[in-house]
Amino acid sequence: MATIKYIEHNGEEHDVEVASGTTVMQAAMDNNIRGIVADCGGSCSCATCHVYVDESWLGKLEEQNDMEEVLLEEVFDPQDNSRLSCQIIVTDDLDGMVIRIPERQF
């Protein structure tokens, strides 16, 4: 289990207990976090689950795969810490990770 802090674009914060093995996207959907649309249901084909990962956590994540890199080129306001939340699998090591949700997905 890990606690993930989701921060909506409007500043509203949600601390969510997430079971290891769950994606950041699925946990957001299960907890009604606004701003993560997830049109493709987590198959890494739409980029509507784009998030910003707090920079201090980036080194603890798996590397982006080729498809994620391509999709992140198409998101609204990409940043160096942009990731697709469907590609971030929660582990106990991510306890306390901060995720910021962009103003819009497309």
TrEMBL record:
Molecular function GO terms recorded: 2 iron, 2 sulfur cluster binding; electron transfer activity; metal ion binding
Transmembrane region(s): none
Keyword presence, Metal-binding: yes
Cofactor(s) needed for function: [2Fe-2S] cluster
All residue ranges annotated as the 2Fe-2S ferredoxin-type domain in the record: 2-105
Keywords: 2Fe-2S, Iron, Iron-sulfur, Metal-binding
GO biological process: P450-containing electron transport chain
GO annotations of cellular component type: cytosol
InterPro entries reported for this sequence: 2Fe-2S_ferredoxin-like_sf (IPR036010), 2Fe-2S_ferredoxin-type (IPR001041), Adrenodoxin-like (IPR001055), Adrenodoxin_Fe-S_BS (IPR018298), Beta-grasp_dom_sf (IPR012675)
Similarity section: Belongs to the adrenodoxin/putidaredoxin family.
Protein name in the entry: 2Fe-2S iron-sulfur cluster binding domain-containing protein
Source species: Spongiibacter nanhainus
